[in-house]
Structures
1.
Amino acid sequence: MAQHNELGKQGEALAAGFLETKGLHILDKNYRFDKSEIDIVALQLEPAEVVFVEVKTRSSEYAGYPENTIDATKKQHLFRAADAYLYEKQLLTVPARFDIIAISMQNPEHPMIHHIEDAFRY
């Protein structure tokens, strides 16, 4: 597996664990619809919300902050996948939001996790 893929998998595992410590329940990982993918789908109980999470992991901040890499095209892909997920799982009446978890692995023993709740809307 390519090194960047391995780094992404590590970041997604860290993000899922982080969300669980905040009381969210992981419903799915790497949900795919057409050419779109949602890294993590979680359920927050209070208030009830489906949380679609985009995880961005970097080994350094040389290329900029990971949360700044989500452009309009990426958002459109996430929206399409989220709509498909809510329809498929019959969750259309449950409010939803999009979060970003940015992880810096400059020091792999002490990764920095930045959680941006409600980062963007439809």
2.
Amino acid sequence: MERTFVIIKPDGVQRGLVGEITTRLERRGLHLVGAKFMLVSPELAEKHYGVHKGKGFYEGLVKYIVSSPVLAMVWEGDNAVVAVRQTMGATNPLEATPGTIRHDFGLSTGRNLTHASDSVENAEKEIALWFKPEEIVAWNHDGDSWIFAKN
């Protein structure tokens, strides 16, 4: 099973969308294997968004992510990275497909509710940055045979 990293950003938490977002991921067939409701330290924010350092939006992005609590999560499932990104929609909510989280609840890129890893490699790095191995719970979901085809 593949794992991916998701953050419900401060706007998603402040708008009361944590349940809606996690419900959509569960209904998609993904399994939650790690979660932390937390305030992000400036140090963690700078490491997480380090790839954007030097870009015009970097300082604002760091300031924003540390401004209010977030829900950091690890999700697991077949093709989890792609499945989560499809569920979230395009980074710009105005370009997101109807039915995606960002389309249904967002209006601007600067307040697009979530972060989701864009590749398996980045998911592994982000999970390691945000979670200790013992904070991730491996478990078997009895309904997997009704979601993932093995025939």
3.
Amino acid sequence: MIAAWRAGRKPVNLALWGILALALTIGGPFGTYETVDIGTRFVYWILVVPVSALIGFQVSYLVEMIWPSLPLVISDLVSSMGITIIFAPIAWLLTQAMLVVPGVEVPSLSEMAFYVFAVAMAVMTGRRLIPGIEKRNYLPRTHDSKRPRLLKRVPRLIDAQVIRITSQGHFVEIVSDAGTERIRMRLSDAVDEMDSVPGLLVHRSHWVAQEAIVASETVAGKAQLRLRNGDTVPVSRTYRGMLEEAGVA
């Protein structure tokens, strides 16, 4: 539950979930405004909203980690199906336990699954359409005059997004979403030429783009980062403090 925990502890998400739960309580959808008291409605939505969001964050993280190269639409469909399989029964049981009163018809489990899938897909699509919310989105990439200076050395990657840079003797390996190139230069100079891209030096031989980080892990007692292309990069003790300050480790 790493991804869900990180999402849940962010004040902005806690605030948004509280506001949404309050709005749904006051609005009383599905006929509950007239039939269920405000206290019960509030308890119901304060459970449903954060639980569904946390499940959504975790399922999306797992899909990105297991199948990092899936097309966005397929990735979101798979994530929405996973969310539906896990959360629809929970939502249905909560509804049966808290909102069932005489004269009120509640959704069946299949109807609840449809609602959950539709909402999950709508939320994921909406987040993909808002720049800066998700690491990958549906919007076409536009020319950016602030492209990293490093990529001017590698014309084939000029419009690519750099995932990591690794030192290999007198060379550096540039790994991007458009392929890998190896050029002769020092890692420190390469990092200087990535100044327009938020990134972190995580090891004396490795720099990673911050937006490419999927998870922070510990394997056999050693810290490492998992990147969106499936690569793993070691994290040395020297740089672990900076990662913690950046909210990565």
4.
Amino acid sequence: MARIAGVNLPSQKKVEAALPYIYGIGLSLSRKILLEAKIDANKRTHELSEEEVNQLKQIIEKNHKVEGELRREILMNVKRLKEIGSYRGSRHSKGLTVRGQRTKTNSRTVRGNTRRTMGSGRKDAGQKT
């Protein structure tokens, strides 16, 4: 089982589909990394040699922010927005949408306004009220 950036990659998946298990790597970035490492994208993860795994580790660690480092950077950016009192920071702190989505109809669960059907809160007929 290959372990890259503190994440165990699933062994039965293709390498191209297994790399996105690492936070900060998507499908397109995994394809670029595999091209740079000159590894066949259709190879399964368990078929990779130690040399190929080390090569992938080196490329990811050198060129890309992933996992803890990326999460920390995102948290710091959000914290900065809150501290300077920007509109986006206030939306983050309230737990609302940040990027201009409509909230009148589409974000009921985020706002805590979940409407249910009429019979959703009814008790069983055998229970005492």
